[in-house]
Amino acid sequence: MARWTAAALAGLLLLGCDPQRIDALEEGVATEADVRKQFGEPEKIWDAPGGGRTLEYNRQPAGHRNYMITIGPDGKMSALRQVLTPENFAKVQPGMMMEDVRKMLGKPMKITPYDLQREVVYDWRYLQPPNTSMVFSVVFNTDYRVLRTGSMLDPQAPENKVQ
To answer: Which partner for 72 in 17, 58, 78, 108 could form a disulfide, CB atoms 3.0-4.6 Å apart?
Structure first.
């Protein structure tokens, strides 16, 4: 419980800083060095189409956002996206590979293997507008292909706990 509380506190601190960090970056002007100055080291770096790179900035497990920041081949930031959205979740389809989902949504808050069912579940915490804490889950088979997806109220969120 103490570990989760510490992670939640860290997530809240990051949440407060993210709008300021984002405001300091302008598409087409900011460089990768500018992005790293504002956000630090990325969780992962993905190859982007056309020779660019996408820097992943994860706010899981306590936060509700993951950011993908694309640096074009010219070294300038071409996109900054918060990717944990219902629109992106709708793009996750049966048969997709885990790596493609991971590139789309970033690192999940939790990975749970279910050996008897021969499945693995990845969970991402997100905010359903206007401000409801939710969990989006993707179930993969043993070949790491999507079987199904779903969303539910976040059972860890204080506002969702049954009294």
So the answer is: 78
